[in-house]
Every structure is written in structure tokens, then in C-alpha cells.
Design a protein that fits this description.
The complex is a heterodimer.
Chain A lengths: L2 E5 L3 H13 L3 E5 L2 H8 L7 E5 L7 H10 L8 E5 L15 E4 L4 H16 L1
Parallel strand pairs in A: 1-2, 1-3, 3-4, 4-5
Chain B lengths: L5 E6 L3 H12 L6 E6 L2 H10 L4 E5 L10 H11 L4 E5 L4 H9 L4 E4 L6 H80 L7 H33 L7 E4 H11 L1 H6 L4 E5 L4 E4 L1 H18 L5 E8 L2 E8 L21 H6 L4 H11 L3 E6 L5 E8 L9
Parallel strand pairs in B: 1-2, 1-3, 3-4, 4-5, 7-9
Antiparallel strand pairs in B: 6-8, 9-10, 10-12, 11-12
Helix pairs in contact in B: 1-5, 2-3, 5-6, 7-9, 9-11
Chain lengths: 123, 397
């Protein structure tokens, strides 16, 4: 079973994504902000995908991405960033820019993207 | 003919010569004169600098008058005092006349013309009119410059305001998109479940949960829009309070109940120490807004840690303290968190506090109250609100 880590400080978004992703057959972990996400990542296995909001307290999406890229163990995990505002490209860490999804997004489209991203990586 | 006397400074070496000039100037005219006299170039220049004159008549034969720079300095002094120089050069020619004009004299009277009243009278009258005109022009010029300066400042201000408004609009759009995203997600999840699931096994609880969630978000969206309207009202100075008798304990408990879902999700157990019987004349809705804002900030920023709310009466004030045990706020942000944020200020944006604290503070101030934060990194944050129990009549901000 493929797993997804969903990171967002919005209760309704993170729980609804958890619900639908579970229904779609994924294993789902959730975190309220970047720091919590990093804590979860410490316990194996690593998720097949991380989908994270950008604006979050304590540790935001940019910072989380930076941390992920900085760790040998985490940097290969594909990341999708969700954002209600324009991504500030100067705040992204160097390297391959992450996939970005603007909020509000179309759920069906997002599910396809998640599916494709995980499968592409698996190949 | 001007009723006021002309003050004319006569610079000439010989008293008879000056006296003759006086005679020529006053000959056959009703114009009254006040004469000042100087017999050397140096004295003449000094008097020109110190006295108010309408015209200065300089005899070019005065020693030093033809020295380079003298005429220029004399003319400049004259101009500064709204006066003008007429040169009388009995021994001069047209070339000389041209030179004197070049160095700032208004007119130059040569040879025979110097001996008759006509030329000198016309020259002096002309010089005086010219000087007045120049002074007037200068005043207008300064006035125009002043107005231009004001206009530029106003334009600069407006530019700033437009930019701030633009930033505000883009921040607003961002703020509104988040609840909309949640609503859309819930509805689309419901639709997908209905589409993929079998009619006999509809997950009613889940679907109901999705509807409730969407409804909750719409309430929140509506509240956000109200906040944004608040902001524009605050800007325009229309922010007013609807005062009524409010029981503080009841109000706080109402808010706690409404937020219980959110607080438990954020794993923030809440402890209260609320003195009963504190009542004040406050705007109930606005005060709820304030408590809600502080609690949701705590839940957001200090999730997983305890929150305490305390309410006490201090003389004729109600003191409310909302304390969390989260990461705390560094001192350099203490002022900033209450400001309206701009996109440039990354920290405020990231804190996700948005407009809430700004509006909270405006509400507290409108009640003649104060709000302060006490916090250090690692030691949580405590917001202290002090509200007078009675505020003066509906205040306008």
C-alpha cells in the first residue's frame, strides 16, 4: 500500500484529505505543520509522497522542503506543495522545484496527480 | 500717481550733485520722495543692504562704482529688497550703458539726459515698477513651488496608499481562498464518494461530516469577509461599537463552547479561572471576536499545549489573560504582530496571524482598553487585555 503524508494547519483540509485518500486506498499520516511532519518521518517507513501546505505556523512549507532536501534519507521523497497564494520562488530551496498545486484545487485532478507522481517515482 | 512716497537712495560723491538729482526727481511731479544719501560706494552698498528702498540711483563716477563686482553686488542687494538700480553716467557712452545693464542695473542715464528731469524720473519710476513686478513674480513662483511640493507629497501618499491597497487585495484573496479550498474539497469528496460508492452502502456519517464541515467553513468565510469589511471601516473611520451589558464569564464560556472542536483537534486542553459576576458595558460581538481570535491563535500556534484563560476584576477594569505554552514570540515581533501585515514582512505572514490581532487591538482600543503580550521564545505567550467596565458612549474610531 502506498502512503501519503499530508501536512496542513487547516483542520478541515488535512482531515478531509485524510478521508478521501484513505478511501482511495492510500495509507495516510497527517501533520499540523512542518516540524510535526519531520517528527513523523523519523519513524519508518517513509511515505511515498508528501503533500504539504505552504503557510503554516512553527515551520512552513518552504522550510520543510529545505529540511527534506538537506537530509539524504528524505530528499528523494516527492513533494507537492499546496498554496492559496503565489509561490515565492525566492523562498524555495535550490534544486528541482516541487510540484505546486494552487488552492482551491480540483480534487479529482489532485488525486490523479498524486497517483501519477507516486507511480512515476516507482518506475 | 502713487500716493506713497518713494524711498530713493542716492549714491554720489558730491552733495551738490545729489541735491541736483533730488531737484530733478521732484521737479514738476506730485510724487513724494524720501531720500537716503550715501557718498561712497561702500556706504552706498551698506545702506542698500540694510535699508528698504524703492530705487537706488548710483552715480557711476563714485570711486569704486566701476570696480568689477560692485554693481552686481549692489543690484543683487537691491533685488533682495525689492528695489532696483538706476545708473547715472554723465561721462559714459552706449557701451557703458550696456555693461551696466549686464551687471544688473535696470537703466543707465547718459550725458545730457542726466541733466533733465524727464529721463531720470522715467528711469526711476520704471525701476520701481520693475522691482515691484519682479518681487510679485518671485512670490508667485514661490507659491507655485510650494503648491507643487504639496501636490507631489499628496501624490506620493496616494501612490503609497494605492500600493498598500493592492497588497491588501492580494492578501485578502489569499485569506479567502483557504476556506473556499476546504469547502470545495469537502463537496468534491462527497461527490466522489457518491459516484464511486454503492447506493446501498452510503457512508452517511462521513457525508454528514463533510456537509457540516463545509457549513462551518462557510461560517468562517463569512466571518473573514466581515473582518475585511471591519478593516475598511477602520480605515475610513467608521468603526463603532454597540454597547450592552455583558457578563464576561458567560461570554467566554460561549466562545469556548463554539471553539471546542477546533481546540480539541489542536490538542489544546483549556483551563479557566474566571471570576464570576464581572459585567461591563461592551460590544458583545466584538468582544467575542477578540476572545475567539486569541484562542484560535493559541490553538494554531501552540497546538498540543495547554491554554489558560483568566478573567479578574481589577478596580474598574476587567483583566483577561489568554496564555498558551507554545513556542512563544520573540521580542522583536511583539509590536509587529498587532500591525496589519504587508507581503514584505514574511514573518507576520508566516505566523498566519493575519488581520486577527490587528482588529483585536482596534476593538480593545475602541473600548478604551489595552492589550499587551508577554512572551519569550520557548516560554509560551500571554495576552493581557484590560477593559474598563464602562466605556463612554458608542465610540467612533
Amino acid at each position: 500500500m502506498k502512503t501519503v503524508l499530508v501536512v496542513d494547519d487547516e483542520y478541515d483540509i488535512v482531515t478531509t484529505l485524510e478521508t478521501i485518500l484513505t478511501l482511495e486506498g492510500y495509507g495516510v499520516d497527517i501533520a499540523f505543520h512542518g516540524k510535526e511532519a519531520l517528527t513523523l518521518l523519523k519513524s519508518p517507513p517513509l511515505p511515498d509522497l508528501i503533500i504539504s501546505d505552504v503557510m503554516m505556523p512553527v515551520m512552513n512549507g518552504y522550510e520543510l522542503l529545505r529540511e527534506l532536501r538537506a537530509h539524504e534519507a528524505y530528499r528523494h521523497v516527492p513533494v507537492i506543495l499546496m498554496s492559496a497564494a503565489q509561490i515565492e520562488t525566492d523562498r524555495l530551496p535550490p534544486g528541482q522545484p516541487p510540484l505546486v498545486v494552487r488552492k482551491p484545487f480540483d480534487l479529482n485532478w489532485l488525486l490523479d496527480l498524486i497517483n501519477k507522481t507516486i507511480n512515476d517515482r516507482a518506475e | 500717481m502713487d500716493a506713497l512716497p518713494y524711498t530713493v537712495l542716492l549714491i554720489g560723491t558730491f552733495p551738490e550733485q545729489r541735491s541736483e538729482r533730488r531737484r530733478l526727481l521732484t521737479h514738476g511731479t506730485n510724487q513724494r520722495f524720501l531720500f537716503l544719501e550715501a557718498e561712497s560706494a561702500t556706504d552706498g552698498l551698506r545702506m542698500a543692504q540694510e535699508q528698504n528702498t524703492d530705487c537706488i540711483v548710483l552715480d557711476y563716477a563714485v570711486p569704486g562704482a566701476d570696480h568689477s563686482g560692485f554693481l552686481r553686488r549692489l543690484s543683487d542687494s537691491a533685488r533682495m529688497r525689492s528695489s532696483a538700480v538706476v545708473v547715472v553716467a554723465e561721462l559714459g557712452d552706449e557701451n557703458l550703458a550696456a555693461e551696466t545693464l549686464k551687471h544688473g542695473a535696470y537703466d543707465c542715464i547718459l550725458r545730457e539726459a542726466a541733466k533733465a528731469p524727464g529721463a531720470i524720473q522715467r528711469a526711476v519710476a520704471g525701476a520701481i515698477a520693475q522691482a515691484k513686478f519682479t518681487a510679485e513674480l518671485q512670490k508667485q513662483h514661490e507659491e507655485h513651488n510650494r503648491r507643487l511640493g504639496e501636490l507631489h507629497r499628496t501624490i506620493g501618499q496616494m501612490d503609497q496608499e494605492i500600493r498598500a491597497r493592492d497588497e491588501f487585495l492580494s492578501i485578502t484573496a489569499h485569506e479567502l481562498r483557504t476556506p473556499i479550498a476546504a469547502i470545495k474539497l469537502k463537496l468534491q469528496t462527497g461527490l466522489r464518494v457518491l459516484k464511486n460508492g454503492s447506493p446501498e452502502q452510503l457512508p452517511y456519517d462521513m457525508l454528514r461530516g463533510l456537509y457540516e464541515g463545509a457549513d462551518r467553513q462557510i461560517t468562517r468565510l463569512s466571518g473573514l469577509i466581515d473582518s475585511l469589511l471591519d478593516l475598511s471601516r477602520i480605515d475610513a473611520g467608521y468603526f463603532s461599537l454597540q454597547l450592552e451589558t455583558v457578563d464576561l464569564a458567560a461570554l467566554i464560556n460561549d466562545v469556548l463552547e463554539r471553539l471546542s472542536y477546533q481546540l480539541s483537534f489542536a490538542k489544546c486542553p483549556v483551563t479557566t479561572a474566571i471570576e464570576p459576576g464581572i459585567t461591563g458595558q461592551w460590544d458583545r460581538l466584538r468582544l467575542e471576536q477578540v476572545i475567539t481570535n486569541l484562542l484560535t491563535n493559541a490553538a494554531r500556534y501552540a497546538s498540543g499545549s495547554a491554554i489558560t484563560i483568566q478573567a479578574k476584576r481589577e478596580a474598574d477594569l476587567a483583566r483577561i489573560v489568554v496564555r498558551d505554552h507554545g513556542p512563544g514570540i520573540p521580542k522583536e515581533h511583539h509590536q509587529r504582530i498587532f500591525d496589519r501585515y504587508e507581503r514584505g514582512a514574511a514573518q507576520a505572514n508566516d505566523l498566519g496571524l493575519g488581520l486577527g490581532l490587528y482588529i483585536t487591538r482596534q476593538i480593545v482600543i475602541a473600548h478604551d482598553g489595552t492589550i499587551e503580550v508577554e512572551s519569550e521564545p520557548g516560554k509560551g505567550a500571554a495576552f493581557y487585555i484590560r477593559l474598563p467596565l464602562a466605556t463612554s458612549d458608542t465610540k467612533l474610531m
